[in-house]
Amino acid sequence: MTTPSNEERRFALRMALRLPVVVSGRTEDGSAWSEPTETDDVSTSGALFHLNQKVADGDRLYLRAHRPDGAPIEVTVKVIRIAPAIYGTARVGVQVLEPAENWLRLFVSWVADEQTPAPNADPSASAFKPSLTIPM
After folding, report:
1. Among 90, 79, 14, which residue's Cα sits nearest to residue 45?
2. What CATH number should be reported for the domain holding residue 93?
3. Position 131 confidence tier, pLDDT thresholds 50, 70, 90
4. How many CA atoms lie within 13 A of 97 on its CB side?
5. Inter-CA distances, 53 with 56, 58, 86, 88, 132, Å
6. d(CA 25, CA 92)
7. Which positions ≥6 away from 71 have C-beta within 8 Å?
8. Total domain count for the chain?
9. What pLDDT is recorded for position 9?
């Protein structure tokens, strides 16, 4: 039996989160590059974001972000999906390689930060919000 080529293969919890990140890597000739961007969504094992820099499937990149408390997180990622996007950019999906526990802490800290009720807030209003916007 064959499966459709556009079948959803993700297995990790994913949520829309506009998180400022800096992505860096090396070009084919070895030159270093770095590009600030923000995520479209994050999961417990990766992220999706737009890049101007050309990358290839399988490239290893470095991704830097900050937890809500300001603590920096840096992880090594592998490009696993590239799709054309607007204005010549690409939507790039990456899988976290190492240290995966740092990325999981980042993911959980943003979810927990968003779930913390405001003082004098209605406790029944703290339901999970699948689409979040984080001010920069």
Report:
1. 14
2. 2.40.10.220
3. very low
4. 12
5. 10, 15, 13, 10, 26
6. 13
7. none
8. 1
9. 54
